[in-house]
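task queued by scheduler; priority normal; single chain, no ligands, no partner chains; default sampling; output format set to structure tokens
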Amino acid sequence: MRKYKNKAIAELSGELCSGLPRLRKGFLDAAEDLLQLTNPGQAYPYEFVVFRLTGYRPKPGPGRVFDGKGLGGDLRVLMLDLSDSFELHTSDYSEKVYDTAAMARRFDVSTKTIQRWRLRGLPARRLIFPDGKRRIGFLDSSVEWFLHDHRADVQRSMKFSQLSPAERDKIIARARRMATFANCSLIEIARRLARRTGRAVETIRYTIRKHDAEFPDKAIFPHLLSSVGNQEKRLIYRSFLRGESVGKLAQRYRRTRGSIYRIVNEMRAHQLLEQPVSFVYNECFETKGAEEAIFAESADADQAKAAKKVKAPADLPPYLKTLYDVPLLSVKQEYQLFCRYNFLKFKADKCRKQIDPKHPLAKQIKDVESLLLQANVLKNHIVRANLRLVVSIAKRHLRGPLNLFELISDGNISLMRAVEKFDFARGFRFSTYASWAIMRNFARSVPKERYRLDRFATGNEEILDIAAGLRSYDPRESNSAEMRETIDVLMQHLTPRERTILTEHYGLDEAGRTKTFDQLGKRLGISKERVRQIEIQALEKLREISDARENI
């Protein structure tokens, strides 16, 4: 929601925006009626405001009173929040509706001037226009009311903004020279000409854009007449993520800073809408005061810090021993963390559904990203507190082709998935649920790895014996010279990357040192699963070579 000066109006806005959609249009129109009645120099009690908006007279409260000026600003904000909370079309009104550009054309002023009129009290709504796009709209009756109270300001703006035909032609000619010979962007030209002519920057920019729209064959910036393509949007967004400033992007693509910001927000919204947000729903999420209750400090909030450290097993590597420095979670802490984690994702999903992909608001995007970031912090906390569980289960499955670090890596993935699927309201401990998830994964992955290795150890062909015994082969033994020669010949049939993976994974070089899939993946710039797939393909090639020799 937008910023309100009065907290009571902000709370009232939340109630009205979450009410029945069929009632919200009435609340919106009542807000404008009250805005037109408000006198900046007068005070208004809270009960009067609620009655004028809803028709319901609340019980007398602790004497909350609003000054007219602050109330007027909050009512304009309330109108925007209400119109954003449901689908409101221009056809829902029997009178003419203007958007910002149409208002500027009607009064022959710039769009910046229309924005200044809004700050002075012009009521606005966010409406869905016939083209299907949602944007700021002004009812004809709202405009007439504003003109009645601000006629002098409007006439002064119109007089100042009017350009003579000669002045317009001069501005267009200068702009064309600057764009052609100096390769200046629209905003750069507008700023320079504003300093020379004494006109507003927005007036110059609007004049150039209007000329290009009316005479597309003589347009100064023809590329601005067409919308930005998806490929160009992706390039702009990637450059922005790499740290390139909006100003530099605007200069490179010869667009305004505002258009670059809109593209960035559109791409951020697209990613959020494409990204699934899964959570375990609970009825308590939608009860009144749910957020305050869920995030209330627990009596044992510091229990984890005060918990005694458990001594790590002596046979673990130093890296794994550090996992035992993280204290385990108590039953209450576990319930609280999972409740908060799923509530944050529930709230993020709810906010995400309010984003208009064609006209996303930066604040909505920021709110969703902030909620997902907070949820991820809680997820990491839960995962760290249960990593030792993965280690203990992995040690029991340590046999066959996988080493301890590979098993732990697979187990960590199962643990993170278990965090996303665990229903905290059923009363079970997460360690029980996670243990079954990790063991089920090992039951599938460990036999699969054994099969992948054993399938190359069937038959009497020398090459299959080599493939199956690569792990036991020692290149430093003198009696392995014949095998060394055979392996070198066979390796010539593989690609350089396949040779590298087999050689370093099984220690076939002179040093005889083996490397894990994870280490090879980091070295080659690919995932460990991709390394595993390439190794399987290489061994499959060796099997095909042996089959071909057998048939000769």
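post-processing summary
- The beta strands are 43-45, 65-67, 97-99, 125-128, 134-139.
- The two ends are 77 Å apart (CA to CA).
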